[in-house]
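Retro notes
What went well: the complex prediction finally ran end to end.
Inputs used:
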Amino acid sequence: MKREEFNNLVYHIVSIIPYGRVTTYGQIALMLGTPQCSRQVGCALHNAPEYFELPCHRVVSSMGRLVPDWHEQRTLLSNEGVYFKDNGNVDLGRSIWRWNATDIWEKRYKV
DNA sequence: GACGTGACAGCGC
DNA sequence: GGCGCTGCCACGT
């Protein structure tokens, strides 16, 4: 898999995240078949051109933690009806996007 | 081409 | 459940 392909796939996946749902870097990496490249997902989004208009605010870390120093992200998510916990993290159990019949995340987050 | 950096995940405490 | 350490890989300098 080339870098460019990897990035394009990341952009594609992010672009199809449904409204009001979130997903994680690790999940995207898993979908690409490279679960060890979670950091690259974040890196790809960081380098994503603005005109892609990606809903990258719907991508959070595996713990539901938001992007550091990007407070607008929380506003955007809450506007979409995403659930938050008391500690300010996203409630993945309620708002994670299950892209398929995979039960990995159901087990992990006890959906 | 080498080195430092980072929008992370996983594991242990 | 929260915090810190380590491994990972692409990017920018």
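What we learned: The longest strand of chain A covers residues 23-24.
What to try next: split runs per interface for comparison.
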